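Record pair follows.
FIRST:
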Amino acid sequence: GATAAPELASAEAVTIEDVPVEDVKYTIREDGTVTITKYIGQAQHLRLPAEIEGKPVTRIGAEAFYGCDGQQTVVVPEGVTTIGKAAFFHCDGLTQVILPETLLTINDGLTFSGCPNLMQVNLPASLTSVGDKAFSECPNLSLTVVAGSYGEEYAKRTGIPYEVVQAAASAAPEATTAAAPATDFEYTKLE
């Protein structure tokens, strides 16, 4: 992949690289969605693709990053609803994971377990399920959770240090977004 120019990198700002499709292994599910099954690239700070072959990425599969040492920042794209078991298990270099507002489930089975340098994770208000051991053996981790959310309940139940933030107006539970389609399509009619 491309590397950032040295003058762009600093302790304060990092350049997040968009992961090319060649750097991931994936499967296309029967419902037309994509599961990323393995990351095989070398980027330290990366954003996973939201679409592959024109289909939405909705899952990060089990063990997709298992044992990856070089990745420090991983941005999981909007549209992903599930992160599988041990997806980021023992990623020693991982310091930050950015989770999407579409995320519903972080499976049990040590999803982020054994990431000693993972410092901070925002649990989105959309979450409805997180395995109790998903963040085990992350001694430096602090969670940011939305007041009254499942994430706040999870942090209290597991004893992981956390900070509570108020929900954005658009994320209010009474918003009527449930009937909206999961994906908006844009198309251009070809003459």
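SECOND:
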Amino acid sequence: GVDTTTLYDISGNGNHGTIHGATWTAEGLQFDGSGAGYVDLGDLGSLADGYTIIVAANVPNTGADQALVSRISSFSSSTDGRGVMLVKAGTVDRYGVVQYQGQGPPYYIGAYQDAPADQWNVVAGRYDGDVIECSVNARSYWGPHSAKEIAGFKEETGSYTIGRRSPTSSWWPLTGTVGYVLVYNRPLTQA
């Protein structure tokens, strides 16, 4: 039978995740938007030197922002937020990567790319120390941010989460299906 509690890391690195409340379908892991469904990936390491996070997901417009993958602290966004999150924007056909600054304004910076809802999209967030980039289905957008804004990135420590903001916060719950997630603690470049 299918293991309903473990999301296996096929990279060989042993970074298996624990599934809470999400269910397997033929297409992937299904999240119902209640906030009860998420995957705790544990601490996959630092993102301070850059990152690339890639998600294949089919997500509808729900009227609320939704977290695809995050490494975010439990915070008040106007004072001490830290971390990074790939999101599906609420009422628009748009995905993004958001970095929280821990101070503000601005309290967060990001890059967004338009893409249709209710269909499969491959969303990538990338940060190389100079540029924040969001790519959806190989179409990219670089956020127009100053060096000061980029330097303000505050890294969160602890678990990476699929399907909501963090293991301890059910904010930004995901409605939809996730086919795969790739997390690299370095910025990938095009071949």
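COMMENT: The CA atoms of residues 53 and 183 lie 5 Å apart.
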